[in-house]
Amino acid sequence: MKLNFRTTERGEKEKDPKKVLDNMRKYTNLSLIATMFLCAVMPAFGLENTSEMKPIKPMEPTQSHKPEITKQFVDESGKPINTENEDPFGILAEMKEMSRSLPQDEDNHLEQIFRDFQRERALLGYGSYESGYIPAGPDIPIIK
Amino acid sequence: MSDKINALKDLILNHPTLSMVDKEELVNRVESLSEEQLDFILPLVQEKSENLEKINEFFQAKKEVLASNDPEKIEAFLQEHYKKLWDEAQQAE
């Protein structure tokens, strides 16, 4: 793949925030699809007992990934999601930082990526952060 | 059998680089996908063949870690996996 950089006035290479978030959105989609394929025949992987798996608390963010998220995310029913302590993979704060220079409507990417995170974890039997365990299964609704 | 299921199976089976073993593994799961999931998956797989390569790459990696049935191992894998995606997203065009 080619690198996607633009040149600043000082001649440095700079990342294009929109392109980076577009890429991330696509990768999270592909990752989620891989999990859908996996969950399509879960018992084949000895996962028939996933209902006995305990929900896992969100990982504590590391110092370098400490979230500074002000945007209010909502779940698929429109209910607010508390993201302050819910940076599931330690990268949401970085993505938020990168999106600062983008118009507000581009911020939608972050919400979609965050929902992909949640769907992936729900499919794998981790459950939601707020309501605890969600049984693993292939029927998690998809919003594009 | 729905047209979407057939279309996805064809795309998988005619993929230029996936091994036959990998193709069969994915094809065997297509009929278990919901209509909503097929609507989500098909456009991305049709867009370019590299997308199915990525899906298969993620599928194989996740299959291995999920087979452990170890929640801590799965959590650690996903942490690393998404950080890698983020790194790649910053590098790729």
Write the layout of secondary structure elements.
The complex is a heterodimer of chains A (144) and B (93).
Chain A: E1 5-7, E2 13-15, H1 17-40, E3 73-74, E4 80-81, H2 92-99, H3 108-123
Antiparallel strand pairs in A: 1-2, 3-4
Helix pairs in contact in A: 1-3
Chain B: H1 3-13, H2 20-30, H3 35-47, H4 49-66, H5 71-91
Helix pairs in contact in B: 1-2, 1-3, 3-4
What can you see in these coordinates?
The complex is a heterodimer of chains A (144) and B (93). Chain A is mainly alpha-helical. Chain A has one domain. Chain A has three helices and four strands, in the order ββαββαα. Chain A has helices spanning 17-40, 92-99, 108-123, and strands at residues 5-7, 13-15, 73-74, 80-81. Chain A has a two-stranded antiparallel ribbon with strand order 1-2. In chain A, α1 (17-40) packs parallel to α3. The longest helix of chain A is centred in the N-terminal third of the chain and has 24 residues, at 17-40. The two termini of chain A are 25 Å apart. The model of chain A is unreliable at 1-8, 42-70 and 127-144 (pLDDT under 50). Chain B is mainly α and 93 residues long. Chain B has one domain. Chain B is built from five helices and no strands. In chain B, α1 (3-13) runs antiparallel to α2 (20-30), α1 (3-13) runs parallel beside α3 (35-47) and α3 packs across α4. The longest helix of chain B is centred in the last third of the chain and has 21 residues, at 71-91. The termini of chain B are far apart. Chains A and B meet through α1 and α3 of A and α2, α3, α4 and α5 of B.
